Structures are given as C-alpha cells and as structure tokens.
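Show me any protein, fold above all:
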Amino acid sequence: MLNNVDLSLTIDKDDYEEQFEIYADKLGYLQRKLRDLEIPVIILFEGWHGSLRGTLVNRLLSALDPRGFKVYSASKTDCNYKEKPYFAPFWSELPPKGAFSLYNGSWYYRKLEKEVRSQSEKNKEKEDETSYEDINIFERQLTDDGYLIVKIFLHISQQKQKKNWEKLEKIYGKEWHKVTSDQEEPRAYDDYYSVYEKMFDATDKNNAVWHVVPAEDLRWAELKIFEVLFAEIESYLSKKEHVTKELYTHSAPDATNILSRVDLSVKVDKERYKEELKKYQKRLRTLQFDLYKHKIPAVVVFEGWDASGKGGAIQRLTSFLDPLGYQVIPIGVPNVVEKQYHYLWRFWQHLPKNGEITIFDRSWYGRVLVERVEGFAADSEWQRAYQEINETEKQWVSHGILLAKFWLQIDKDVQYQRFEERENNPDKEWKITEEDWRNREKWDQYEIAVNEMLYRTSTDYAPWTIVEANSKYHARLKVLATVVALFERALKNN
C-alpha cells in the first residue's frame, strides 16, 4: 500500500489558507450534524514516528468545537492498564454518542511496537498476545453499534523522517528522546515498513478502511485529512439514511431444552451445609491471598431467576474474603451516561486488576435476556450479542482472567413461594417489586431466552455452571465449591 503513495504532493501557503477556512467551516457543520444524530466518531492517527502526528492532530482540533471531542495518546497509556486485557483502555476512552475521540496512536500502537521489537529480539516484556483479528473484532463490534471509525496513516520517507528528527532536536534538545519511544525507529525503518504493510493487509476492512496520507508537506497532509473525513462522514450518513441494518441470523438452537434437564430435587441438610460452608469459606480466604500473590485476576458472574438466591450466594462467597481484594458490582438498568456508549462499555470499566476479584450481580447477559424479552434491544442488537459476548470473554480469559459464570435455576412454584414470603415479611419486602411480578408473567419467554443464552455462550474457555437453586443450601455450596475448584486449578497450573 505504501509503495503506491505519491510523496511529492505539495500546496502553497496562500492556497492552503484559502482552502483551510472552507474546510474548517464544513467540518464544523458536519460535527454539529453528527452530534444532533448522536453518532460517535473515532478518528485515529497512526504513522511513522517523526511524521508529526501531534502537529496535525492539533491543527485538526482547531476546526472542531472543543466541547465535542477528547484526545487520547496510546503511547502514554497508564501502566495500570497493562494489568487488564489489551483493549481495556480503549473501551474506557470511547466517545459517547454525538462526540469525537481523536487517537494520536491507537490500539494499533502497542501491537506495532511489539511486532517490531520481536523482529529485533528486544521484546522481553510480557504482554497480551493481541492479534490483528482481535483488532478487527473490536472495530467490528463498534461499527456494528453505530460508531464511525476513520483510520489515517501518515506516510513519510526515511529522509523526511530524519529531517523532522533533526528539527525536533533543535527545538527541544536531545533530551526529548528520554520521554518518547520514537528514538529507535530511524534505525529500523525497513522493519517498520514491513510491519505497517502487514497491518494494512490484515485490518483494511470495509467497516474500517485505512487512508494513507502523504505527510512530506504538512499543509497538503492537513487538507487531505479534511477530505478523508468529509468523504467518510458523508458516506456514513448516506448509508444510515438508506440502508437497513443487517440482521445477524442464527440457526435454531438445539431442540433439547437445557433447563428441563436440571434436577431441582437435590437438597443439602442444615448440618452438612454449616460444616461445608465454613470449610469452603476458609479455603477461599487462603486462595484469595494466593491469587493476589500470583497476580491472577478473577471475575464471577451471577445470573438467574428473580428470587433464585443470587444475593445470598454472593454474601456467602464474600463473607471471609478480604474486602480490599474484591468488589461486587450490581447491574441494573443502564443510566443516562451508560446509554451513551456501547452496551459492553460499562462492564469493561469494572474488570479487576491483577490479583483482585470482581463479582457481577447480573451482567452483560442482560442484552440477551431482559433487553431481548422486554424489547429494549433491537433484534439485530441482541442477535449479534452472542458472538460479541463470546469474543469478549475469550479476550478476558486469554489475558489470564479466571471467569466463573453461574445461572441459578429454580422452578416457577418456588419463585412464587419466595415472592409471597418477601411480601409478607417486613424485613424482606424491599426485595420484591411490581417489576418482579411483571417479569414472572413472561416466564415462558424468559425461559426461551435463557436456554438460547446457555446454548450459545457456554464455551470451553467460559462455561456456564447451572446451579440447582430450589435448595438454597445446595446452591450456595455448589457456587463455593465451583469457585474453589477454579481457583485451585489456576494456581496449580500457574
């Protein structure tokens, strides 16, 4: 791709200034239109070190309303993010609906740097093995959700790179090398060249096209960037007006009803419950310390019918744990802020650091359960969510996160009894709402959704554990035993 770029293109100062005013006005108009339509836009800049990306980003910003954008630099990623999956910082920095995010270096940055270091055998640091396919998945998840991604690569010659380097050294002195990773690239131009070409081949997709901009002449490059943005925005708006969103089609799940095979008659007597409860809780306290010592993060997910005992199970799970090492995240209806982002955004915010545990009381599975049944998500949204969830969980597990997923199963009669008990007990009536009764009326619809969820998202790397929860004692012990076994296996294999 780089071989076909004409680096000789230039524009004189007068023509540049005349066109800049026109282009800036047009970009301002488009920014306001995108804001009114609540379309989030991601503009990412990659390119040669020394191509003066920062300068061009600053010039572009001068044409935008500062109230509608934020700027992010991947080269300055907080070191804490290295304790989390590769894409965690980029999920955190997504623009809300109607806003722009500009990336001076993006999710490609760490990948590209690692690729080059591996060629020179200098890569000693342990990092996530992120593939270009992972990047394609991330970008597809965003564009499927309505994000516009504009990818710009600034191309310069090796000679121009050297001149820019010398210019920066004159302005800032040679000490500027100490605060940048750019100093190695002039000695590895050919290595970077081949890595960049590999990147283009792997990630130049219809939903997120690469635009290579010649940047030997900054004024010409700046105007070209404007033109790229105009073309991408206008194309997006045209498609949005005339194209119906494609449905993700799925074959019907296995006819076997997964929930119908669950034996809800299993019980545990009180004496055995007390004995085993204490044993598991003490063991969990020790395992929590071992996870911290070995820097192993864990995520525990609870889903289940209303009144199935999720809260009680979580309470027994955490009773003996050090509160400094875990957090419980209750998930309800997304708030005003959360609705401005991709539905997975809020869950990425709560991923644990190394050695810590995050417990979700309900989770991202709401997309294929309550949002599906109640009509809060369009068919295309919840249908594609199975794939998105599997992809996301695979990234987390590949990073080293231990993932336990529990579905607490009760029958309809037991739910009714527990609802009645809550309504008639002043200490528990806060647990029952009109919404719970309304959801109960849709039991059959939810059962279909649960079965499909279990079928489509129980994977070898993130299997579901179905907990027989008619007996609270049995349910709590099974949860504890499963978590203990998961932690012990991980520590044994560490």
